[in-house]
Amino acid sequence: MSSTLGTALVTGASSGIGATYARKLAERGHDLLLVARDEERLAALAAELKDAHGIAADILKADLTLPADVKRVEERLRADQAISVLVNNAGIGPNGVLLDGDIDYLDRMIAINVTAANRLAVAAAQAFAQRGRGTIINIASVVALAPEIFNGTYSASKAFILALTQSLAHELRETPVRIQAVLPGLTRTEIFDRVGSSFDHIDPESVMDVEDLVRSALVGLDQGELVTVPSLEDASLLAQFGAARQNLGPHLSKRVPASRYTTKA
């Protein structure tokens, strides 16, 4: 029997944040469609969660740097009426600073973090709005708010996800579809190992366990948050940031330049 909660499609589900979302959503009673490149790990996770929670779990091997694979995931998302949640998590991190960076690697990062994430988020928004239900969880990063502290291309990719979420929320406001951007800080997953780094030089008090991250993010979703920063104790700081951004709105597009620019060049 299919879950009454529907199926959660989780990208980047073979490890880390994606696998943890899969476990937490299975605990809640969702069926799963797990997407990643590592078919063996996906199959093992699917079997584990079927046995543990009695849910249905399917896998879809896909490399989201490849347009054809992204379209296969999109087609499944649009065609499968049972899909009610998208966890848009797949992504890769930086392997150094931009001045020493491999531009081909950065292009691959953009393909996953931006191009694929955008296509799946928009497809989900369109499909869920038509179905009259659905939830989109876009995994961004705190560096979307503080790009100076990290690799510029990675930070920009996560700022894209935040802006996309905010814009889609505005378009979806008259529908029952929920949307959330999750902004993790440093999180203890495999991502740093994959790019040749580690946590050895980082204050352990700055690194959140992935279980705590996902649990907190789901609580934020339940509470109706559009933007969730799991490590932020004082929520008023984020509210103030949002209010300042909104206050800029009326001043961003006018017929004449600001007076400080009207002196002769």
UniProtKB/TrEMBL annotation:
Family according to the record: Belongs to the short-chain dehydrogenases/reductases (SDR) family.
This enzyme's EC code(s): 1.1.1.298, 1.1.1.381
Record's catalysed reaction(s): 3-hydroxypropanoate + NADP(+) = 3-oxopropanoate + NADPH + H(+); L-allo-threonine + NADP(+) = aminoacetone + CO2 + NADPH
SUPFAM superfamilies listed in its UniProt record: NAD(P)-binding Rossmann-fold domains
Keywords: Oxidoreductase
Protein name as annotated: NADP-dependent 3-hydroxy acid dehydrogenase YdfG
Functional summary from the UniProt entry: NADP-dependent dehydrogenase with broad substrate specificity acting on 3-hydroxy acids. Catalyzes the NADP-dependent oxidation of L-allo-threonine to L-2-amino-3-keto-butyrate, which is spontaneously decarboxylated into aminoacetone. Also acts on D-threonine, L-serine, D-serine, D-3-hydroxyisobutyrate, L-3-hydroxyisobutyrate, D-glycerate and L-glycerate. Able to catalyze the reduction of the malonic semialdehyde to 3-hydroxypropionic acid.
Taxonomy, superkingdom: Bacteria
Native species: Peteryoungia algae
Gene3D superfamilies: NAD(P)-binding Rossmann-like Domain (3.40.50.720)
Entry-linked InterPro entries: NAD(P)-bd_dom_sf, Sc_DH/Rdtase_CS, SDR_fam
Class of enzymatic activity (EC top level): oxidoreductase
